[in-house]
UniProtKB/TrEMBL annotation:
Highest taxon listed in the record's lineage: Eukaryota
Ranges occupied by ANK repeats: 82-109
Record localization: Cell membrane; Membrane
Protein name (database record): 26S proteasome non-ATPase regulatory subunit 10
Region (Disordered): 261-280
Keywords noted in UniProt: ANK repeat, Membrane, Proteasome, Repeat, Transmembrane, Transmembrane helix
Annotated organism of origin: Vigna unguiculata (Cowpea)
Keyword Transport: no
InterPro entries per UniProt: Ankyrin_rpt, Ankyrin_rpt-contain_sf, PGG_dom
GO cellular component term, pick one: plasma membrane
Signal peptide: none
Main location: membrane
């Protein structure tokens, strides 16, 4: 019974300690320590996942934190169930004075990571705590270069839209170009992420940095440029158009900077100032017109198939239905019964079987075989499209989009050839030449359209390869 009573008293004392940490009552802490000098050592035996220092650091009770650390310094190195140290919590809440106190006890806590591999600096960046960021960097400057699977501290600033914290990091003495252009797990640079989140002020600031303007056309892991990331974002509004113009102007500024550099160097070498020729300006204007045409009209939209998934499903289903009907009801019909003679001689085959195509027994040409081949290609191509769309696979990536595009063009081309082959089979000989002439003109236009589309896709693939490698 005495053990049970002692246990109850101890539990009550620990609970009182945690209540004091919630209120930041230093006098209660001293009273508890006087009554039980080992109370802070018994914290690790309690069922609570956090220590009193975690709670006091989270709430910013500076005097209480200092009293705890003075009595038991090892509390600063205790982690909670999430692997977070008191410094993580104080940094997230922006309690700068508490952060200073904890760092005086153990400066290496700047390198402490939680279960998600995040430093206290990442929490401060995530909440935009500039004062806390300054103290953490001052204590351990190299902690800024730690990159998690979610990116660097700069990515956290952009992801949670803290422009002032981003400015502070960029202007830090420890910042270098490689770190500024670092990518997250999806291969996104800071500009990719800002464009994706449509943060106009952040984009405007990033484009003032020469390093970021130079890498403005970089690709992420999905092979998307900043323009293509913007194209994927919804909805398409005024902000999207404004960002497009900002990115386009950034590309023009890079060209102008080179021209100004070359012109300034030439003027420096000459004794008197010279007038800048108009040809570079004309070239810049032509480049701007070309980029505008490419970005607004010719650029490959990476999400059009995903947007038109329902329409593609209907088109593919209609093509499959049409070609299926053509297979069971071919041009010229089928034999209604077994026969050895008829409009076409069946003697060469023995018997013309009931239900088989009449024109399939024509020995004069292989028109029916051509019709059946094109019909089958169109039928199975449409089934492939339906299968891919129903499979649940993501179709907004470029490889899948190119596969769907090729298969769709194959289905459409084959159904066109199926039509021409069927028409030849049922057209009388005295009209075959005239009908063939009409079909040839339309077929030529169709082939030209296919060639243009294929060339466009090939050039786009070539441009991506050049940018990537």
């Amino acid at each position: 019974m005495e053990v049970k009573a002692t246990q109850t008293v101890e539990d009550h004392t620990i609970a009182t300690l945690y209540e004091a940490s919630l209120k930041g009552c230093v006098s209660t802490l001293h009273t508890l320590i006087q009554r039980n000098p080992l109370i802070l050592n018994r914290v690790s035996l309690s069922p609570f996942t956090e220590t009193p220092l975690h709670i006091a650091s989270l709430l910013g009770h500076l005097e209480f934190c200092e009293a705890l650390v003075k009595r038991k310094p090892s509390l600063v190195s205790e982690a909670d169930s999430e692997g977070r140290f008191p410094l993580h919590l104080a940094s997230a809440e922006g309690h700068t004075e508490v952060v200073k106190s904890l760092l005086l006890t153990n400066p290496d806590l700047c390198y402490a990571v939680d279960k998600d591999d995040m430093l206290p600096l990442h929490f401060a960046a995530m909440r935009g705590r500039v004062g806390t960021i300054q103290e953490l960097i001052k204590t351990r400057p190299d902690s800024i270069h730690r990159i998690t699977h979610n990116g660097s501290v700069l990515h956290f600033c952009v992801r949670f839209n803290h422009l002032e914290a981003l400015r502070f990091f960029v202007q830090s003495a420890t910042m270098n170009q490689d770190f500024l252009l670092a990518k997250d797990k999806e291969g996104n640079t800071l500009l990719h992420l800002a464009v994706k989140l449509k943060q106009i002020k952040t984009i405007k600031y990033l484009l003032t940095l020469p390093e970021m303007r130079t890498a403005a056309r970089a690709l992420n892991e999905a092979g998307l440029t900043n323009f293509e990331v913007l194209e994927e974002s919804d909805p398409r509004d005024f902000i999207t158009l404004k960002i497009q113009n900002m990115l386009t102007e950034a590309g023009v500024q890079i060209i102008n900077a080179k021209q100004q550099g070359s012109s300034s160097s030439s003027s420096a070498s000459s004794a008197s100032p010279s007038i800048i020729p108009t040809q570079p300006a004309q070239e810049s204007k032509r480049m701007k017109l070309w980029e505008t045409l490419w970005l607004k009209y010719l650029q490959y939209r990476p999400n059009w198939i995903e947007e038109k998934r329902g329409s593609l499903m209907v088109v593919a289903t209609v093509i499959a239905s049409m070609t299926f009907q053509s297979a069971i009801n071919p041009p010229g019909g089928v034999w209604q019964e077994d026969t050895h003679s008829g409009g076409l001689s069946c003697s060469s085959y023995g018997t013309c079987k009931a239900g088989t195509a009449v024109l399939a027994y024509d020995l004069a040409h292989d028109g029916f075989l051509r019709f059946a081949t094109f019909n089958s290609v169109s039928f199975f191509s449409s089934l492939y499209v339906v299968m891919i769309l129903l499979s649940g696979l993501r179709v907004d990536n470029k490889p899948m989009m190119w596969i769907l595009t090729i298969v769709l063009f194959l289905a459409l081309s084959s159904i066109g050839n199926t039509y021409i082959s069927a028409q030849r089979l049922v057209t009388p000989h005295h009209l075959a030449h005239k009908v063939g002439t009409v079909n040839a003109s339309f077929s030529t236009v169709w082939k030209i359209i296919i060639a243009i589309v294929v060339l466009f896709h090939f050039l786009h693939l070539l441009i991506l390869c050049v940018k990537k490698f």
